[in-house]
Amino acid sequence: MNLAPITAPTPVTTTVERPATGKVDLAGTFGKALEDARGAEHQATSAAERFANDDPSMGIHEVVIASEKANIAVRYATTLKNKALEAYRELMNTQV
C-alpha cells in the first residue's frame, strides 16, 4: 500500500477590506465570502473525485479536511448574510 505524504493544510482566511474612506465594503465582503465558499466546495468535490478514482496521492484524510473547509466557508457566508439581514431589520424597526 502506497500512502500519500501528509501536507500542511492551507489556512482559510477571510478579511474585510476597508476602502480609503474607512467604510466597510459590504458588497465586496459578501462577494468574497461567496467566492471563498464556491472555491472550497470545488476543491472538496475535486478531492472526493480524485479519491474515488483511486488517485494514490489523495488520501481520505485530505478529502475530509477539504469537505470541512467547504462546510466552514459555507457556514461563514450564511452567518454573514444572516447578520446583515438582522441588522437591516433592526434598522427598519427603529422608531425615529
Question: What are the defining features of this structure?
Answer:
single chain; 96 residues; mainly alpha; 2 helices
Q: Helix/strand-derived class?
A: mainly alpha
Radius of gyration: 19 Å
Mean pLDDT: 84
Share of β-strand residues: under 5%
With helices defined by DSSP (H or I, 4 residues minimum), what is the helix count? 2
End-to-end Cα distance:
71 Å
Sketch the topology as an H/E string, one letter per element.
HH
Main sheet attributes: strand count, strand direction, barrel closure: none
Based on Cα principal axes, name the global outline: elongated
Q: Would you identify the regions where 5 or more consecutive residues have pLDDT less than 50?
A: none
Oligomeric state of the chains present here = single chain
Give the helix proportion (percent range). Answer: 55-70%
Number of strands: 0
Would you mind describing this structure in some detail?
With 96 residues, the chain is mainly α. The protein has a domain at 26-92. The chain is 62% helix and 0% strand. The protein contains 2 helices and no strands. It is elongated and about 65 Å long. The termini are far apart. 12% of the residues are buried.
What's the helix and strand layout?
Elements (H helix, E strand, L loop, with lengths): L25 H27 L7 H33 L4
Helix pairs in contact: 1-2
Can you summarize this structure?
The protein has helices at residues 26-52, 60-92.
